[in-house]
Structure formats: C-alpha cells, structure tokens
Specification:
Four copies of one chain form a homotetramer. In chain A, helix 4 (about 90-95) runs parallel beside helix 5 (about 110-125) and helix 6 crosses helix 8. Chain A contains ten helices and 17 strands. The first copy, chain A, is an alpha/beta fold. The longest helix of chain A is centred in the C-terminal third of the chain and has 19 residues, at about 375-395. In chain A, the strands form three sheets. Chain A has a nine-stranded mixed beta sheet with strand order 16-15-14-13-7-12-11-8-17. A six-stranded parallel beta sheet of chain A has the order 3-2-1-4-5-6, sandwiched between helices. Chain A has helices at about 15-30, 50-60, 65-70, 90-95, 110-125, 140-150, 185, 190-205, 350-365, 375-395; strands spanning about 5-10, 35-45, 60-65, 80, 100-105, 130-135, 160-165, 210-220, 225, 245-250, 255-260, 275-280, 290-295, 300-305, 310-315, 325-330, 400. Chain A folds into two domains: about 5-135, NAD(P)-binding Rossmann-like Domain (Rossmann fold, 3-Layer(aba) Sandwich), CATH 3.40.50; about 140-350 and about 375-395, Dihydrodipicolinate Reductase, domain 2, CATH 3.30.360.10. Chain A is globular and about 60 Å long. The interface of B and C includes residues 1, 307 and 333 of B.
C-alpha cells in the first residue's frame, strides 16, 4: 500500500458546521480508503482566542484570523466554507480563483445573483481541475441515497407526488434569543433557506426532477426576539431574560409552497411530472429534526424521516394485496456508505453524512471529476428559493423557476 | 324505564354510505341510551329489485323507488340522504319543507349556491323545531373528539400550524374503472370534495378556527378511465378489461392548498391565526385511508392518522426536556363516546363514527337543539372548496373564502 | 333468493362477553350472506330484572333466570355460554346432551378434567350433527387470519421462534376492586387463563404446531383487593374507597413461560420445532390490550399487536438486502373477512372478531362440519394451562403437556 | 487552560471492537473536555502485517505481536482488551498486576471462576489507584442512561416487570460461516454471552436491582456450519460455498430465561422485587439489532429499542386517562452525554456509546474513583450467565444466582 498524497484543508468558521466538518475530515480516512489524505492544516475565524481554542479542540494545526490570508497560503489545497451565507460568494469565488478546491455550506448564497456568480466561477475553475461542491449533506444519509437508487431503478415508476416537510421547534418559544439565522442580511432567509433548502435539494435529487414553478406562503410568527450576547452561536436553546433588548426578526419563520416538477430527463407524455408540497418551519412543537420526504409513483412509494434516519420505508404496489410500507433498516453492507461502518442494525448518526460528503469529495478530486452537488445544482435550489419568495410576495401567485 | 318515543327514519341511497348509516341506526340504541328509538321504516332507490334486496339486507321495513314518495310519507320523521352530491340540495330542501329532520352526507352540495339554499332552508326549518345536520363523520372519531377537547382546554396554546393530509391510493391504477365520483356533474369535485372536505371540516372544528383564504393547485393525473357497467358502485377495486370504452374524468385527482385561519372567536393581537397546508389525493400508493391532522400551538401539538384511528399523539412543551409525542390509546371510558363500548384497549373501527353521529343527532332532536355540524357549518366548508377551485383556476393566486 | 332457515339462539350471561356476542348475532347477517338466520330468542341470567334489562338492551326476545330452563326450551337450537369458567362444563355438557349446538367462551374450563369431559361430550354430539365451538375470537381478527394463511403458504419457512405477549394494565392500581376474575373458584386462573389462553391458542393456530412442554413462573403482585358491591362486573375501572373490606386474590397476576413446539404435522429432522416465550400480565402500565404475536422462521417473520389490530407486519428474507418488516394494512377485499365490510383502509374494531366467529360457526353448522376451534382444540390449550401451573408449582421445572 | 496529562493507551485486538474502541479514543477529546489526554500508543495482535495495517488505519503509533510485551512497556498506562473472552482473564490480571488500568470488553470472562479471579485482581489494584472497567457499552446510550435516571427519580415507582429482548438475525442463514463466536472454547457461550449479557447488565443497571434466580432454556438451531478461512472475523455476512467443510457449533443459538430481581437496595415488604423475561437470539429474521428493554412499575413504564436508539418511550400513569407512551427524542442538551454533540433532533449512532464509555473511564481515573461497570458488576452478570446455563442443563429448574 502506497501512502496517499495529502489533501491540505483550510476551514473558515468553527461553530456548529465547523465542528461537524472537522469531525468528518478527521474520521473519513479511518473508515474509508481514500486516494488522498486529508490534513487539517488551518482554521480561520475573526476572534483570535476563539479560533485558537477551536483549532486545539477540533484538531487543526494552525489558525488565521483573516480568511483572505488562508486563501493566500501555499500549503492549502481546499477551502471549506462554514460561515453564514452572506459571506459565501466572496470567499468561494476568491478561493476558486486562487486555485483552491471549495466545499461550501448550504444554501449556496443569499441570492440568485450571488449564486450565479459562484457557479460561473466554479465553471471556470473546473476547466483547470479545481472543483467546487455545495454541502447538501442529507444526500449522504444512507437511507436517502438508497431512495435515489430505487427511483433510478424504476421501482417507483413515474413520480406523481412529492411531500417534503422539514419540521423543527427550536424557535417555538418566543423568548428564545435572536441569532444570526434570523437576520436576513446574514442568512438570506429563515426556515426557507436554512432547512427548506435541504428539502428542495433532496426532493430534486431523489426524484431526478427539477422544480419548474411554485406557489408560496411565508410567515413570521415572532417578529422580534431578545438579543443575547453572541449572535453567531448555534441558537435555539435556552431563554434570555425577559427584559433583554429585542431585535427584529427579518426572515420567515415558516415557508409553505406547492410545486411542479419537470418529469425528469426522459420526461414524455407518459410522465407529465409530479406535483409537490413543501413545508419548512421551526415552530412545529415536538418535531425536533423531522426532515421528511415522501414520494409516490405509479409503481411504488418511499418515505423517509430524519428523526428515524437509519430507516427507509418503501411500498411496492406489485405486492398487492399484501403490500405495505416496508421498513428497511438501511444498515446492510450493500447499502450506500454502510459497508465501511458497523454490523447490520448498528445505526449511524447525524455526523456520518458529513463524513460521507468528505469521502465523495476527496474521491472526485482525486479522479478529477465534478463532485455533486455542484454549484450549478445548488444554483437551481437557489432559484427555487427565489421563486418561493417572489410568489409569496405576490399573493401566492404561481411563479416559474 | 319508560319506552322512548320512536324516531322513524327514511333513507335514500343504499351503497357504501347507505350500509354505514343503516348499521349506525340499528346499532346506536344497543350501546347508548337514546331518548328516541330509531326505527328503520323505509329505504328509497331507483332500482326496484336493488332497493328491495338492500332493504332486506340492511334491515329496512319497506322500500320506495322515488325519493319524493318517501318524503310524502306520514310515517317518516327523518330523511337520511346517502346519494351523490348533485341530488343533495333538491332532496334536503324538499324534506325540510315537508317538516322532516335531515341527515345529509358530505359534501353538503356540489356548489356554494346550492349549499346556501340548503342552509337557508335549514334555518327556516329550525325555527319550527326541524333540524338538519351534515355527515362529517370524522368528528365522531373518539381521537379527533379528544383532540378538539384538548384545544378547547388550551393545552395547545395559540395555534400556529395546521397540517392536514387525506391520502388514499385506490385510483393509482390507471385502469381502475370510471365511477360517479370522477364525474363532476355527479360529485362536484374529485379528491377535493370527497376527502379534502373531511380535512377542512376536521381542521376547522378541532382548532375552533375558520379558514379565511387559500392558494391552491389541482391536478388530474389520469384523464380518462375504462367504463364499467355500474357507475354508481363504490369503485376503486379491480381492473376493467383494457379494451373497454373509456370515459372522461372531469374532476381533480389531487388537491393541494395552503390556508390561513381566523384565529378563532377570541382572536386578538396575540393569536393572529394559524397557517395550514392541505393535501388530498387518491394516488398516494400505500396510503389507504390516511386522514391525518397535525396541529402545532405555542404550548403543544397533536397528531392524528385515521390508519391508526384509536390513537391520538399529543406533545406538551411544558414537559421539556423530557417531552415527547404521547401516544394516547383513545379507549378509556373518560374519552368521548368510548365508555359505551368495550374495555380499555379494545379499539373501535370505521363504522363507529356513524353510530356516534346518530347518537348525537338523536339527542339533539330530542332536546330540540341544533345538531352539529349544521348546514351552516357545512356551507363554510363548501365556501373553502369553492375558494380552492377559484384559486387553482387563477394560477394559485390567493383567494379569500 | 330463498329465505334461510332460522338458527335460534339462547345465550347465558350478559356482561362484557354477552354484549359482544349479542352484537355479533345481530350484525353478522347484515354484512355476510348466512345459510341460516340467527334469531336472538332468549337470554338467561340469575337476576330477573337484570336479565330483562339486558334482553331489552341487547335485542333478545325473552329471558330465563335458570340456564337449565333455557336448555329445555324447544325453540332454541344453539346455546351461547358467556359465563365465568366454573360453569362452562356443566352447562355445555347439558346443552350438548340436549341436542343443542354450543358456542362456549374461553378458556374452555377451569381444569383439564372438566375440559376432557366437555370434549368427550362434544365428540358424542358431533356424531349426531350437533357441534361445539370454543370462543378463541382472536383467530377471527383479519390480521391474525392472514398470518396463519402466510405460514400455511410456507412464506415463513420452518418456524424457529414464537414470541407471544398479552399485556394489559387494568389491575396495576392496587386499589382497583376485587372481581370474579381474581377468584380462582370462579375463573380457574388469572392472567394465565384470561389472556394467556388467547396467546396459546393464537400461537398454536398460526404456526400449525402444538406446544409439547413448558417451564413457567406465576406471580401475584397484589394479594388482596377492596371488595366492591358487584363482583360479576367487568372490573378494572375505578377505585374503591380505601377502607373497603378486602378480599383475597387467589389467582396469578402475571404468567411467564417458555415452551417447545412439536414442529407441526409434517415435522421431520429439518424442522425440529420452535421455541417460544409467553408472557401474560395485567400490570404492564401503558399497555392496554397488547395481544402480540411474533413468529420467526427460516424464510421470514411476522408480527402482530392488537393495539394496532388492522396491521400485520411481515418480513421476507428473500428481499434482502432491501428487506424490512412490511406493514400490511389488512383491509383489502382479498384479506380474510374484510371484503364484506368497508373500502380499503377503513379499519375494523374489536367486536368484528365476534361477528366473524358467528359467521364461521353458522356456516359450519349449515354444512354439518366441525367448527373450529373445536373443544378438542380448546382442551389442548387447557392442557398447556395445566402444564404451566404444574411447572410453576415445581420450581419452574420443565413439564410436558 | 493547562494541557492535560496524557493517558497512554495500549489496545489488544483490532477487529470489530478494536475499530470501535479506537474511534472512541480518537474522538472523545474532540467533543468532551477530558482531564487526561488519551494517546493511542500501541496496538497488539498476533499477525504482524495485520496489526500494522490496523495501526495505520485506526491511528495507533506502534504495534506489538505479543500482548505480554504490550503490558511490559513503560509507555502504556491503560490496557484496552478487545479480544475473544477466553483470553480476558489472563490478560486483565496480568495488566492489573503490572499496574495498568484496564478496559475489558464484555462478557468479562468465559466462566464465573475466571471472572472471580479477575474481580479479585481488580480489587487489589484499586487499592493502589489502578482501576478496571468492563465494556457494557449500552449503558452509555443516552436513552438508556435517561431510563436509569428516571427510575432513580422514582418516576416508575416500584418495578414489577422487566422485559428484555436482544434480537438479531445474522445467523438465520444456515450457510453463514462458522466464526469464533460459535466456538465455546473461544466465546464461552453463544447468544447468551454475546448479546444476552448486554440485556442482563442493562436490566440490572436501569432498575438498580440484581437478578436473584433464573429458569432457562437454551437452543442450538444449526449444529454445524461451513468453515471459512478466517475464524476471527466479524462473521455473519455472506455465505460460504455449500461444499465447504463444516465445523461444530458448540454454543447456544438462542437463550430464553425468566428471572426474579432483588427489589433493590431499599427493598422492603412493599417492593418484593420484579420478575423478568429475557430472550437473546441471532435467528429473529428481520430484527437487526433489536436490543430492547421495557420496565413496568407501579407508577409508570419505559421502553427502549436500539433499532431506534435516540428514543426513549415513557409512560406516566398519573396522566391517565390521557396517558400514553411518550416518545422522547433523547437529543436535548439536558440529556445524558447529548449536550456535547449536535443540536436537538440530530441523533447519535452506535459508536457514540464507546466514546461516552471512554469519557466516563477517563474521568474516573483522573478522579481516582472506581469506574462503572466495575469487574464486580460484570462478575454479577457472569453469575447470571452461569445460572442460566445451569438451569438449562437441569430441565429449566429454578437456579439461584
């Protein structure tokens, strides 16, 4: 066995996503045979003491307090962007232009215009063998990857219905503190971009179809919230004293929209495309991370809920009258990603998606091919987000993507 | 114990709904103490031999082949309408004008105009102690009745989200035969009025709020279907030979809409009303009768699925961090309707809702008060159905109810 | 259509089981085409006013206060025994000798000796075309009937494991009142015979195998309970005042046993028989009527829980690696008994099992063949109950049936 | 922040358990603040190339091919034993005598006699500040740790029932290859010690009660299996060619036993102790890693299934009549271990238990207190295993522990 070449990583941001990405970079080579060896070279953040503590905790060899400096460094091959959405475009474009591969958290950007510029930059870079990928990590949940495989195998037939919910409840308490996620200038949108974007990407990816138009409704339930000291934290847990100053919530708390799909690459008269219902909220008390996707086709159905993330439920109409939703424990060695982990029935957790993402990214880079989801894929999601906002602003009138 | 006075019933129609209603009339006095004794006097239907066989099978003492004759009879106190929606208005108005109480299947009518005339007739009749009720029978499912009780007790706080799905799959097979339910002239609409109407009524009733506006999408997946001999049958089971002549499906196969609620009777600034997502389809393969309702409030949530009809799931945020959806077996004697049946844990079935409906109706008539849902309640549902169709016809643009 | 001949019923006892049986006799001909028409001729009970009220409520034409008189009547063809177990033998034998068919509630008797005499009487009667049946009604739950069908079709392969639980909680409160079910002289045993007997019968019936030996443990958690006025009631709901006199509980509160099965009729070297675990208790707080059965074979598995009675879960190993427990809604017209009821997905309730039991019994009598479960089948269950008690009394030592 | 002192680890064995332990040692300091810094110094295994590859893959700095040499090394503070059970006693005693802390995989040993000697050695070592711990890792599943907390808080009242199943299916295929786990000389027992031991420990730990006696049944379904090349592998996945030579299975395939508990430390007349049912098998087709525990007390119940490992279901009788099993997502920051990981609803996986185990062990060593489960705790489990085997060998006769 020859020692693989290094892939030297620089990461920007070290909060929730930074911790998840760091774990992935550390762990991937321990369970998967990678063609390149990820090295955690440097992490960047504005706060010097904060970034140093993070580097020590998360396993990075050095730190920077200016992301531009990170990009300038010669000992970095890949920039991993874990910051709020308002910074994605500037960082990603600079990194790509500097010849660094990029892994960028979702949503790709805070506007379609930014996403288009990023996609253009990614296209240019790809010509030089420098690749960009967007972190729609739910694609790497084994159960959803199995779902896509089954749709591709034709086991659902033509798709008629898509039903996507992303339900959380961490903002239900009106005294939960203000966070950057509720500030439109930082996050671009609220539930829509934070969690709805995952549903859009997963629905399009699993079905192999693009959304062509939407009708939408956005709602803000709690228009202002107490200001806590640190607005860049994870947010959501714990109240702030009732007399704290309050800041304006400038994003949606909940997003609801219906959609039409394009019927896929091979769509003809027989497959006119599916219709979909989407809902994203952080106010569904009792639903903690219910990222759900159900798809009904002419031959079968599938259903997924991230709260039971190691299971995919599949219905095959051919088994009628004894058909029923089959609860597949997606923990067999034949299932996507699973064979590198534990024996059957020993389930994976949330962070495994990030590890799988790194595995796929490293393999693509080593093989000099475009990793998925590409920035172009993420731009399509961004266009759906834009259409949702446009429709909601126009009395829910249908809006083409 | 004195013998109760009789309540003499005449029923029109004897298919699926006729069988369910007959069972309810026969069974209610065996498990409940009724102030009036239902007597199954006569059943009416156009086909003489068919109606005679039905009378014998279902327990009716006599038959009529013209519903007008049934209304003219002196030995009938209540007309039970189990026919397709295009006949409801004429029959119900005639019966009420003839001084007969009326139980009318849902949806109340095939148009708002019809429903308005029926409601007017019901209002006039009520002044004379003659009452009309619409058969939104899911209200009588113990779990949904418990849900309403909990909302009324304030256990959910102010309602923010309503999530209503009614998913079936009996039309998924494109060779399933044409039925009257797919003929707009008979049924008024498709999934929307047949099953979506149940969701609308249940959502409004459980939350105590009215829908004030909608944005909608309607879809017909299979535009024509093979004609079977009998178009008045239940439909849905069994294919028809492939070379059978085909008839046009003139209704929606699926209906999706978002909605806003009025915040309830006591709605003020603090309770601006909920938003809702509704979906009704007969093409969700694997979902057999998934009439689901989830409601999220500021203090708690509840969730129901008719496929597990004896269960209500309830979440109480005050129990945090050890809160969770509590799976209540709604089979305790303290639960609505349940004390008259079996011991704890011995669940009820679909037809019990009809029996409970009869119990509530008979009690209301005996006590000379308006039974619920009234025609006015059903008219409100009809107005929502109308708004859904109007929005769908206008590129999903928001439409006030 | 010729009018069917009558089958004239006399019922003894009118509490919980009497209400369930009455409903079945009334309802069966309304949904099924029966070759004989059940007529509810007379009900017997010791308390004259009680039995008259019951007759009126449950639909019986006349009453008797002595069950012997009921058996003497010429206008009775079938005796339906709904009394506590200590009376079964005397009544059933007398009825059979008088030429009456018998439907006897379970468990068949309070001892193996009684059950043997009853089985002998049933054997003699059968020679004269008079039949006896024992009311193990769970066999008539569609999901369990489907389970048996699947085992017979070989879809599970050779059976290895049986896992049967019957969990209730209505005695968990130590102040729940004394009832006849806790008096060994009346009921024979406690959880063992009341609910464990159902598990034994279901396990043997579904697998097609007999239990050949057991090792058992019996436990009484609450040795005495407050005496309520009426010891013949259903029991279980509601406390009695703390200072009420207390009576001794003389039966088991919980029964646990392991078992070996005989491998079925065709058992050879390759199918050495399954092993089983059984548990019956009324102290499993939160489990209301969890009559559960799981069977694992060499090719597949099935699982059932009466708390979700319209569902059977089935696992087919041939579908591996995408195998999973398939949640079959047992509400299709092709499923046992279901075609005579409602459309797909409209579930049945507890009492339907009794209606199906009547349907099967009436058909067997009309066709002059032995209905199942026969008294001989029930005697086998009684022998298992006896072996359980013997093993428990001998330090759990293995005891052959 | 001062740099913590190192805790230098040497691990013996590098298969399934070795991979899990390595991951834990690497990951624990990244998510938890540890008072000592684990260093992965050396891994030992008999096969030189195998152990070198494992060291590289799993992150160990050096290797040994003789475990005795590992114990002799001065640069090792703790010996982590991940080998089959036949080697545990010799290694653990040698390590403790050499002044090394010990983490030993379960079951502690292959016999009670070995376990007693190990416990004695651990007792001697503890006097010198050298500690031993046994790896019953399921204790570190957050949901089971929450279960124990709830029992300790008295939320279940006095325990009456314990219901423990550990169901797998990876040996159901009779052509799955022979492994060391099926060789009694290596593994001590089959399902009993491999998975049943986990159930015994979890049941005793969660309830705070010891098992005092058992009645048991052991069964071997497949008496011989094809021999594969490597008998030390994980086993279970994939068939071997039909004509491969076969080896004798010398352990149980399934274990069933009933048990009595001692009522806990404060047991008096009012809490006579619970009764339990245990079942362990690798032949329950469709059950992949169903490590289940249900406990019923006088005030409430709890239920857990490792196939849904982030959930604990809890029933509180005080909520009656609206009580129900509450499905707690054990992903809140207040839940055991959870606060160091991800936001609410982002579940953990199988390997997290090993990480938590390391955290608890490192903390105990740093604070110079006995980590749990101690060897004495594990000896108690071993005694139950011994009693099960003794009872099974004596016609299931009750056997005191």
């Amino acid at each position: 066995m020859t020692t693989p070449q290094p892939l030297r990583i620089g990461m920007i941001g070290y909060a929730f996503m930074g911790a998840a990405h760091s774990h992935a970079w550390r762990t991937a080579p321990r369970f998967f045979d990678l063609p390149l060896e990820p090295q955690l070279i440097a992490v960047a953040g504005r706060n010097a003491s904060g970034v140093q503590a993070a580097a020590s905790k998360l396993g990075w060899s050095s730190t920077e307090t200016d992301w531009r400096r990170l990009i300038e460094r010669d000992d970095i091959d890949l920039i991993d962007i874990c910051t709020p959405g308002d910074t994605h475009a500037e960082i990603a474009i600079a990194a790509l232009e500097a010849g660094k591969h990029v892994l960028c958290e979702k949503p790709l950007a805070n506007s379609v215009a930014e996403a288009e510029r990023m996609t253009e930059a990614a296209g240019e870079a790809a010509k030089k063998g420098v690749f960009a990928m967007c972190g729609f990590t739910y694609r790497r949940t084994p159960a959803l990857a199995l779902a896509k495989r089954m749709v591709e195998q034709g086991r659902l037939g033509n798709i008629r219905h898509v039903r996507a919910q992303y339900l959380q409840d961490w903002l239900s308490d009106e005294n939960a503190p203000m966070t950057w996620r509720l500030d439109k200038s930082k996050s671009g949108s609220g539930s829509l971009g934070d969690i709805g974007a995952h549903s859009i990407d997963a629905a399009q990816w699993v079905t192999g179809q693009k959304i062509t138009g939407v009708s939408a409704l956005l709602q803000t339930f709690v228009p202002e919230r107490p200001l806590a000291g640190d607005l860049v934290g994870l947010g959501g847990h714990g109240d702030v004293a009732g007399d704290a100053p309050r800041g304006a919530v400038t994003v949606d708390d909940a997003a609801i929209f219906s959609a039409r799909f394009d019927g896929g690459a091979s769509a003809g008269a027989a497959s006119a495309g599916a219709i979909g219902v989407f809902e994203a909220t952080r106010y569904a008390l009792g639903r903690k991370n219910a990222m759900r996707l159900e798809v009904n086709g002419t031959r079968g159905s599938l259903a997924f809920d991230f709260e039971d993330m190691n299971v995919l439920s599949v219905y095959d109409a051919a088994e009628s009258p004894d058909a029923g939703f089959r609860r597949i424990m997606v923990t067999e060695p034949e299932h996507p990603y699973v064979g590198n982990w534990w024996p059957t029935g020993h389930g994976l957790g949330y962070e495994h998606g990030f590890t799988h993402q790194v595995v796929d990214l490293v393999n693509a880079i080593a093989e000099q091919r475009q990793p998925e989801p590409s920035f172009a894929d993420a731009l399509q999601v961004q266009r759906v987000l834009g259409a949702v906002e446009a429709s909601a602003a126009a009395a829910s009138r249908w809006h083409d993507v």
